């Protein structure tokens, strides 16, 4: 497992640095106003990607890994079922964007004039979705060589390269989506060539994946909502500039989870495989080890950021708006809790068949919405909600540490 973790950690670090660099490039190429628009659009694309995927990001790798653990011949059935579900979901989303363009633009950006941006925006979401299903196929097979290669190209290199020939955010999102579609399309073709089409059990796995994924959808969509709604609310109640600052700060918080993402990405199929073998002692060992590690990382990283916020942002973006520094400091207190949640969610999904991550997310999201109404302080409400999310996560890993069967 060390090899898989090293591969995935290396890829996630490259993606983290790429994720940091794109904001710097957006500020340099498009100015402060373009930077704010870019930040909101990036948050919203992650938001809608989670909705359209319908929980397949968990369902596909889990079921492929479980079928491999059982030594069955149903991997092809699992993947084809997931691909069909995604195709239907994307078709529905495309129709909604075409029919309700102005309403969707107003809901996401606080201004119906952004309807002209939606085509490029949707192409970028198509690229992300196709990338996700290819990546999750290789995750399920625990083939992290191919998985890491796809990640580095689509999420590490493409977001940087498109700045070379993009004059505005519309071109940027359009070109990045088209390139990701091309790269992921080639990878998908390779997968489809290798699949076994005889004795496929779509009648069994279509409802099974859909049911499992749809129960995880509230978790994916809820987390995306938790990370997107503060900026969306701000776009309606404040200026686009302040909404962009909030979106950027939340993106930094999201990037802090990149340090923990390799654990979640690797441990979901790994724990699923160990569940097939009924090896509960090893599951408990991994859970305790990684939980302690990311508690230490979260505390250290958050305190360092709070001490050097202004210096780090000045070094990163250049001359920074005092309001950006203020918002960023508040949001990044969530770094005490977010990496821990990211590391543990893969273990929870791999261990339990019940959607406990969904429960945690919905409780945290409800808490955020309540606080937002009562206080109208979206950044601080987000921090408290993420603390609740981490507490719920800790509650659900306690039985795993006892080495008991769920």
How would you describe what is shown here?
- The chain has helices at 2-53, 56-69, 75-99, 101-109, 118-140, 144-161, 169-194, 202-237, 240-256, 261-277, 280-307, 309-317, 322-331, 338-351, 356-375, 378-401.
- With 406 residues, the chain is mainly α.
- It has one domain (2-401).
- The mean pLDDT is 84.
Topology readout:
Elements: H1 2-53, H2 56-69, H3 75-99, H4 101-109, H5 118-140, H6 144-161, H7 169-194, H8 202-237, H9 240-256, H10 261-277, H11 280-307, H12 309-317, H13 322-331, H14 338-351, H15 356-375, H16 378-401
Helix pairs in contact: 1-5, 1-6, 1-8, 1-9, 1-10, 2-3, 2-5, 2-8, 2-10, 3-5, 3-8, 5-6, 5-7, 6-7, 8-9, 8-15, 8-16, 9-13, 10-11, 10-14, 11-14, 14-16, 15-16
User: Radius of gyration over alpha carbons?
Assistant: 20 Å
Largest sheet: none
End-to-end distance: 23 Å
- The helix-and-strand class reads mainly alpha
Total tally of structural domains: 1
- DSSP helical segment count: 16
Helix content: over 70%
Q: What does the oligomeric state look like here?
A: single chain
**Could you report the average pLDDT, rounded to the nearest whole number?**
84
> Which regions contain 5 or more consecutive residues with pLDDT less than 50?
none
User: In sequence order, what are the helices and strands, one letter per element?
Assistant: HHHHHHHHHHHHHHHH
Strand content: under 5%
- Estimate the global geometry from the Cα principal axes: globular
Give the number of DSSP strands.
0
């Amino acid at each position: 497992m060390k090899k898989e973790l090293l591969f995935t950690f290396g890829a996630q670090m490259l993606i983290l640095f790429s994720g940091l660099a794109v904001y710097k490039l957006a500020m340099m190429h498009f100015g402060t106003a373009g930077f704010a628009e870019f930040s909101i659009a990036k948050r919203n694309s992650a938001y809608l990607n989670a909705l359209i995927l319908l929980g397949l990001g968990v369902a596909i790798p889990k079921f492929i890994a479980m079928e491999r653990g059982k030594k069955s011949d149903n991997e092809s059935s699992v993947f084809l079922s997931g691909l069909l579900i995604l195709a239907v979901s994307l078709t529905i989303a495309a129709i909604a964007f075409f029919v309700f363009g102005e309403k969707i633009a107003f809901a996401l950006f606080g201004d119906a004039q952004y309807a002209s941006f939606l085509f490029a925006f949707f192409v970028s979401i198509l690229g992300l979705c196709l990338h996700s299903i290819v990546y999750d196929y290789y995750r399920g097979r625990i083939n992290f060589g191919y998985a890491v290669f796809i990640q580095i190209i689509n999420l590490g290199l493409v977001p940087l390269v498109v700045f070379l020939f993009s004059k505005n955010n519309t071109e940027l999102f359009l070109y990045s989506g088209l390139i990701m579609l091309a790269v992921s399309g080639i990878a998908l073709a390779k997968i489809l060539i290798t699949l076994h089409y005889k004795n496929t059990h779509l009648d069994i796995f279509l409802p099974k994946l859909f049911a499992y994924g749809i129960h995880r959808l509230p978790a994916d969509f809820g987390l995306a909502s938790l990370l997107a709604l503060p900026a969306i609310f701000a776009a309606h109640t404040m200026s686009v500039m302040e909404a962009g600052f909030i979106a950027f700060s939340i993106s930094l918080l999201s990037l802090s989870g990149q340090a923990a993402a390799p654990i979640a990405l690797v441990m979901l199929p790994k724990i699923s495989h160990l569940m097939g073998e009924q090896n509960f002692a090893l599951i408990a060992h991994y859970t305790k080890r990684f939980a302690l590690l990311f508690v230490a990382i979260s505390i250290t990283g958050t305190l360092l950021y709070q001490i050097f916020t202004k210096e780090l942002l000045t070094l990163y973006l250049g001359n920074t708006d005092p309001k950006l520094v203020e918002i960023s400091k508040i949001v990044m207190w969530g770094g005490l809790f977010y990496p821990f949640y990211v590391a543990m969610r893969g273990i929870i999904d791999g261990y339990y068949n019940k959607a406990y991550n969904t429960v945690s997310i919905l409780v945290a999201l409800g808490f955020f919405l309540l606080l937002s109404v009562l206080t109208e302080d979206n950044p601080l409400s987000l921090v408290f909600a993420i603390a609740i999310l981490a507490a719920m996560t800790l509650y659900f890993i306690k039985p795993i540490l006892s080495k008991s069967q769920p």
